[in-house]
């Protein structure tokens, strides 16, 4: 569906993206994470052709997406600071968008207005930040895109509205979504695949865990062993009673072997969350 081939982008003498290669499968939800300044927003803007790439290609169904109106109608980008005609209401904006997006879906628009109990007659300049976010998302989804690009689009939404949007996005068919967010818990809940932008490269969460050799386990004992776990050099260590939750850099078999002399009654592998992985990576960078 979407293919990035050796995409690079710089601003002045500062490279932001360098030789990015990525193949996006249809009807999946992708999450993008990374510390500030690594290029999440720039990558989305290059895909949407808001920024022209310096080198490389962005292909949509094997067609170069740059300056191609037919492709652009299928790709909708919601920026972190969306631009709207502030003196207009959402209802008035619809007439504007219909000119450029003949596939505008009035049925979906009505469904979203009802779902979020949204006042379509209120002028945008009088809306709160969260309401402006909602208006941008309602319009974007009503444009019936094939590819939806969301840049920090949940920022400013209250928890109830955010959860409604997350559940709504999960239910959509024939829609591919790429979303960047600082709220990694949202992405863990929503996405089929999560990628971390690091040093000009895209690395999947699963690949990074494998490459780093990280595992998360719960270990339980029949006696107090709080001060005897340091030899494992855990990257994270939490204790509740006699149950220890550890993140270590070794294999599960190796860990079990090292724990034999301590006679644990339970060694249970757990899924390493995106938030835990992200915090560990940031800490490593700070310690370098």
How much β-strand is present in the residues? 25-35%
Backbone shape: globular
- Low-pLDDT stretches: none
In CATH, the architecture of the largest domain is 3-Layer(aba) Sandwich
- Total helical segments: 10
Number of DSSP E strands: 14
**CATH C-level category of the largest domain:** Alpha Beta
Describe the strand arrangement of the main beta sheet, using strand numbers: 6-7-8-3-9-10
Look at the structure and give the mean pLDDT: 88
Would you give the CATH topology of the largest domain? Rossmann fold
In helices, the fraction of residues equals 25-40%
Radius of gyration: 23 Å
- Our count of domains comes out at 2
Characterization of this structure:
This protein has two domains: 2-205, 3-Layer(aba) Sandwich (Rossmann fold), CATH 3.40.50; 213-287. The protein has helices at 40-47, 69-72, 90-100, 106-115, 129-142, 159-171, 184-190, 205-212, 252-259, 274-287, and strands spanning 2-11, 14-24, 29-33, 55-60, 63-64, 75-78, 147-151, 176-180, 193-198, 201-204, 214-220, 236-240, 243-249, 266-270. The strands form three sheets. It has a six-stranded mixed beta sheet, with helices on both faces. The longest helix is centred in the middle third of the chain and has 14 residues, at 129-142. The model has no long low-confidence stretch (mean pLDDT 88). The chain starts with a strand and ends with a helix. The radius of gyration is 23 Å and the shape is globular. It has 288 residues and is α/β, with parallel strands linked by helices. 28% of the residues are buried. It contains ten helices and 14 strands.
